């Protein structure tokens, strides 16, 4: 570790917001900005440097590692390769890895240039949409009440989720390219409305189960307890994402630790953990009860849907990459 730390100490030091283009500014963040146009390895090794994106990157990396540990335990209990009823779980695993890998990479590498800033966060948005698709596949495969099975919503959930996964990437990319810093609140409406749309779809089976438990006296099982916690964590994430609290009240004091976006990441991490715990309990409790009586999951309704949405999002990112490139060519670079 000592040679690595000596190398990290030799990296280009961070600077204040006055020394970087306005595109990289964040509300109420004053210091800890990495300089642009550095070699790619600089941004990777800056994981061990003190800067204002360090904790954002680490929270996603830690979440990814913990999720991989959970996936390993799933593989030891379930036959993820040969059991067709595990295809939805494999699809959910794929999209969870996509979410954290895309988001980690965005926070790690976006400072390389203005164009890379746009592009990496478009990739981040694609990962968010893919995660929503994966959650939809999981919930409509393992976590729904029997009354939803075979209904219209059950039949169209995955195709609609594919469209919404791409919509998330499109809307968030529009919000990134269309607006300039300091961003207006309208930009967050673009983001929150698209993410809210796919979240509403994926959470319907859970809300129905909660309603049936409260209103009709259905059993409140351990899976539903985990689902309720994932909802609370997600709502907390939305609050910190949209509020800029606590740095709003103490500008410059939370540049490195305690920023609302870091808290947002932790809330999303907990949302993921509780979702995985909930799905595990749903599979364990309902596998023999009725899951095995469902139509066999299809490739196109699970992994195929993930691959299709991934391809479509690659196209979306490529288009908006070119739009961002054109924007940077015609607009003068501005600094505050």
UniProtKB/TrEMBL annotation:
Transmembrane feature ranges: 85-106, 118-140, 152-177, 189-211, 299-320
Cellular localization per UniProt: Membrane
Annotated GO MF terms: metal ion binding; signaling receptor activity
Membrane topology type: Multi-pass membrane protein
InterPro entries: AdipoR/HlyIII-related
Pfam families on file: HlyIII (PF03006)
GO cellular component annotations of the record: membrane
Annotated keywords: Membrane, Metal-binding, Transmembrane, Transmembrane helix, Zinc
Keyword Metal-binding: yes
Main location as per UniProt: membrane
Binding site for Zn(2+): 107, 261, 265
Similarity remark: Belongs to the ADIPOR family.
UniProt name for this protein: Uncharacterized protein
Organism for this UniProt entry: Potamilus streckersoni
